[in-house]
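A.,

Following up on our hallway conversation. Structure tokens first:
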């Protein structure tokens, strides 16, 4: 009995050690995920700041050119307006794109999609679309033989006109004696 208790204690201690190791492993993985998240976020913010610094350098160059009278005040004004308007659009887009990332995984985007609202709007028992009644397979065309040519007969099974097979010794009728054979519809077409 003592041996069983000792084995049971060892098993419990081993389970606790395994649980601690699993918790430590999970914490390390979580730290790696957090590090990757903030690394990606900082690189995006770094791009925004570098763009802003580049914009300041361009304005510094424009101001120097204006003070040396290389650029007139009018040209400086219009170039500044153009650069500011383009920069506002670009920086605004970069900031909007930066804030649209997911809170847990920076490589994914958050589109503010309300899954629950969409599910609730969908009807529980949608009505199936109306279907046409199935065609009767035993229906036959009774007037089909009326539309067949003289050298054709109506086949009730295939529901189409079939050309009568002629002997090879008979010559086709027609002024030129030439004819085409339509293998798709089993028709013989006389050329005139």
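Then the amino acids I'd put at each of the 192 positions:
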């Amino acid at each position: 009995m003592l041996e069983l208790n000792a084995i049971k204690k060892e098993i419990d201690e081993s389970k606790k050690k395994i649980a601690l190791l699993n918790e430590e492993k999970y914490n390390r993985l979580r730290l790696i995920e957090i590090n990757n998240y903030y690394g990606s976020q900082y690189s995006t913010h770094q791009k925004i700041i570098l763009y802003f610094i580049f914009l300041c350098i361009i304005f510094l160059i424009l101001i120097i050119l204006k003070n040396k009278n290389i650029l007139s005040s009018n040209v400086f004004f219009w170039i500044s307006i153009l650069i500011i308007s383009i920069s506002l659009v670009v920086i605004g887009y970069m900031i909007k794109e930066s804030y649209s990332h997911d809170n847990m995984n920076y490589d994914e985007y958050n589109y503010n999609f309300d899954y629950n609202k969409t599910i609730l709007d969908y009807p529980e028992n949608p009505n199936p679309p109306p279907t046409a009644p199935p065609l009767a397979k035993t229906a036959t065309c009774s007037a089909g033989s009326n539309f067949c040519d003289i050298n054709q007969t109506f086949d009730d099974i295939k529901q189409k006109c079939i050309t009568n097979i002629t002997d090879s010794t008979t010559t086709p009728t027609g002024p030129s004696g030439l004819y085409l054979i339509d293998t798709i519809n089993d028709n013989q077409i006389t050329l005139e």
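Residues 2-121 form one domain. Curious whether your intuition agrees with the design.

B.
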